[in-house]
Amino acid sequence: MTSPGTKKGFVTGEGSEKNVSGNLGKVSFSGDLNDSGSSSRSSGGEGGTFECSGWVYHLGVNKIGHEYCNLRFLFIRGKYVEMYKRDPHENPEIKPIRRGVIGPTMMVEELGRRKVNHGDVYVIRFYNRLDESKKGEIACATAGEALKWVEAFEEAKQQAEYALSRGGSTRTKLSMEANINLEGHRPRVRRYAYGLKKLIRIGQGPETLLRQSSTLVNDVRGDGFYEGGDNGDAIEAHQWKCVRTINGVRIFEDVANFKAGRGVLVKAVAVVEASADSVFEVLLNIDKQQRYEWDAVTGDSEKIDSYEGHYDVIYCVYDPKYLSRWQSKRDFIFSRQWVRGQDGTYTILQFPAVHKKRPPKSGYKRTDITPSTWEIRSLKKRSDAETPSCLVTHMLEIHSKRWCKWKRTSYSKFEKTIPYALLLQVAGLKEYIGANPAFKYETSATVIQSKLPDVCNGEYVDEELEEQFYDATDSSSDEEESDEDDEEQDNKEIKVKLKNVSWAIASLSLKRPKAPGASNVLDASVDPVSIDPSQFQGSLRKGNGDKDSNCWNSPSGMGFMIRGKTYLKDNAKVMGGDPLLTLVSVDWFKVDKAEDNIALHPKCLVQSDPGKKLPFILVINLQVPAKPNYCLVLYYAADRPVSKSSSLGKFVDGSDSYRDARFKLIPSIVQGYWMVKRAVGTKACLLGKAVTCKYLRQDNFLEIDVDIGSSAVARSVIGLVLGYVTSLIVDLAILIEGKEETDLPEYILGTVRLNRIELDSAVSLEV
């Protein structure tokens, strides 16, 4: 029997087969990573050139239409990237087969899990937002490695933006935006001394790409940046009480708004001594032999379908002898949908499902598995030598009176139910990983000094033309053609009432002024104008309280936690104050396709006479993918002009890369189905790094077009939200992330509360 960390027969190229195993190395970024998972180090400063390298799969289609998956060594230094057939550190004389620059217009998208030949990999797509014909794909063995590469490319984009901001020749600037002939020559390279830099190594060899989860390592930096506790950036109305501890696993119930005879939200929580990446891979792996060692419910599983890399459908057979009250064999189908937050936290949603490939069959009784969620969050490490660990939470809603009896008396019949078996999956997972040392111990970080004689320490300057990185993943190269080497719970769910939030806010016992920390954001030398909301009427009406439906309101920022003045020193967050900007109107449009530049529409609020008199308007256009598509447009007004030297002023007039790195949104499902709450979460998200954002700065406004459909993960989550939208109350807070001490404390730009929106109420946008 093969070890759990070895994958046999993974085809890496046409007609070739490799059977290898190895250990993954840890990546350690030199900058501080924040709560959104982004680097807070200014890019491109002196001594700050970013470098990393590692093995990846290069995916594509050759000239005769055959798909290939070739093993390649990828090297990023600053804004430059190279692709090799072999590791250049072990083969100093080798020449790169591809070389190019990472321009500011390059977009990076994580496509999720995909089966390539005989193995599952995690795919990253690159494309030029100005010309999507320029694109390419690479793949990694784990979701953690894929995230590292995404972060590396985002850092390189910031290097490119910094290089542009420093000046340089006009020809160089233009060449970074030029359309490149992907079949053209490779440019000559001139080396300039640029100082000895540290090299960040992702992985330790080509064999590591074929390892399964037993050798995965922690994605957290050496100094650790994940904070303790499971609080997000929005205050939730949950009161978790531990009711029992079983085999080192704590069992909690949510006692807020609990009513006898109704469903109760329950979770099992345990600390597992392995990285979040490792635990995630174990949970997703449906290999029977591995599953038998820890999972008493879904051991006999089969994947019958998958979608967009973040969603699959599983068919399971269950032996009735383990639940004696069952008299016949049982089977069930459930779907799994997973997302990885910008802070590295994994969330897996499991729903009962049906599928045409597995209709009910004779001899088996089809049952619905209880909906549940998994959350896997890395814990902070005190030192590099400490074993990585994560907090694993399995949550489900139990609609059984036996639960109350079991809490008091260990009611034995409850222990024969599927919900109980699901709760104990956490204990099985913890023990299984504890019994396999390969999950617990990681190799040390590989941080080496550059030592290539001609190219490692150089900055590349193209004497004729700088090629875009898409050249590095294009399929047109001759060298790439071959390679030598339960039913829906709406009517039963626990309604978390809005008044329950009051206990959380009151517990902070703080009364905050309007937009604390924003005293110098608006120009105090100019007299404020009077903003009369009655002059601005959008297609979605303003509500008359939280019991109203299909409307909007603007709540205070007290339900959100934002970075305080000392955040860079102690990670302390504070409760938000009232928004700086006034939400004056909301439009709810239905459109055939995503519409940009709404502010330029002649009937838009911005183009009205009252709108033109406002000193500044921030327009947020949330483009919702569906059939039809929708646009939720938020209009925030300032009563004074924006100060050019403030963080908002720098954002409004800054570059797209600057904006992408700072435009932050905090979501909160105040009322609604608990599964939707877990899917959306409450952690802050840098929208510019999660989805494609476009910016339009004209006259007295800035419009931000947020294309939610540009990310497979975002499409998946928004699809779930739309299914329950008429029962949801959603709060959103918009702010600019404070990366430097001068930008702290953060302040909330604007908020919106969306009360049970009806899709049919959207109006057509007249073109």
Automatic annotation (TrEMBL):
Origin: domain of life: Eukaryota
Location of region: Disordered: 1-46, 470-493
Biased composition (Acidic residues): 476-490
Pfam families referenced in this protein's UniProt entry, alphabetically: EDR2_C, START
Domain START: 240-399
Compositionally biased region (Low complexity): 28-43
Protein name per its UniProtKB record: Protein ENHANCED DISEASE RESISTANCE 2
Upper lineage: Eukaryota, Viridiplantae, Streptophyta, Embryophyta, Tracheophyta
